[in-house]
């Protein structure tokens, strides 16, 4: 038996892509601050939520996700550790470049470490009336820490989210995903407060029946997919779409998705239970089954 090869934690195109967007984002941030006095990193919510650093970090780290998608490099946990370290270095490098720019402009500045300490202690927040508050002193290091957490965390959001994306190991590519339809798993919500026990029992029975019927259609579809019955799967999905146009407005529904590899056409049929609407919506994985290229082609037809 030959040696087992371990996949690299990160690839050169991913590194270059992320470092390029990081450099461009930090350059833009510095230009906006120098030209217009707009500090993109300075937006905080309730003095503790680093909205600005998070957004700047997301823009900076977008190249990691884009390069990973284009090259098919799969993001792993150890990849994120390396990227986090790079973004921390980028944060301090940006501080040092800003220091050098001020120094080259003729500013009488101390060495970088005393300068960084001075600027950190001088951090202050602007009030709602536009007045600048008092320097935070030592507490400024708390803001620096939030800056770093927001910037690094924002940079990792896109590549971290790609870990859960469907991936074809055979072809080394991320799968493309699309929704196939939504099945009802409840009836429309209606008020039962103040109703009699008989009305409440009838409503609960309707909910149970709708849930049972939705699960039956769902399980039948997934059984066909598991049996590699391409024609019947495509027909079942067609019928599901035709009969459940308003399912998305119900309190509980079953969402069905197909992820497929652009190269070999193998895919994964998956579903999840959606409960609630809007910001109160919750999602729970329900089922997942691999499907053959024949099934994918039938669903694409």
Tally the beta strands.
Answer: 6
Strand content: 5-15%
Helix content: 40-55%
The secondary structure category is alpha+beta
Relevant terms:
single chain, 301 residues, alpha+beta, 4-stranded antiparallel sheet, two-stranded antiparallel sheet, 8 helices, 52% helix, flat
What does this structure look like?
The protein has 301 residues and is an alpha+beta fold. 52% of the residues lie in helices and 14% in strands. It is flat. It starts with 11 loop residues before the first helix and ends with a helix.
SSE map:
Blueprint: H1 12-36, H2 51-71, H3 77-104, H4 112-121, H5 140-161, E1 167-168, E2 173-174, E3 176-184, H6 197-226, H7 230-243, E4 252-260, E5 267-275, E6 282-291, H8 293-300
Antiparallel strand pairs: 1-2, 3-4, 4-5, 5-6
Helix pairs in contact: 1-2, 1-3, 2-5, 3-5, 6-7, 7-8
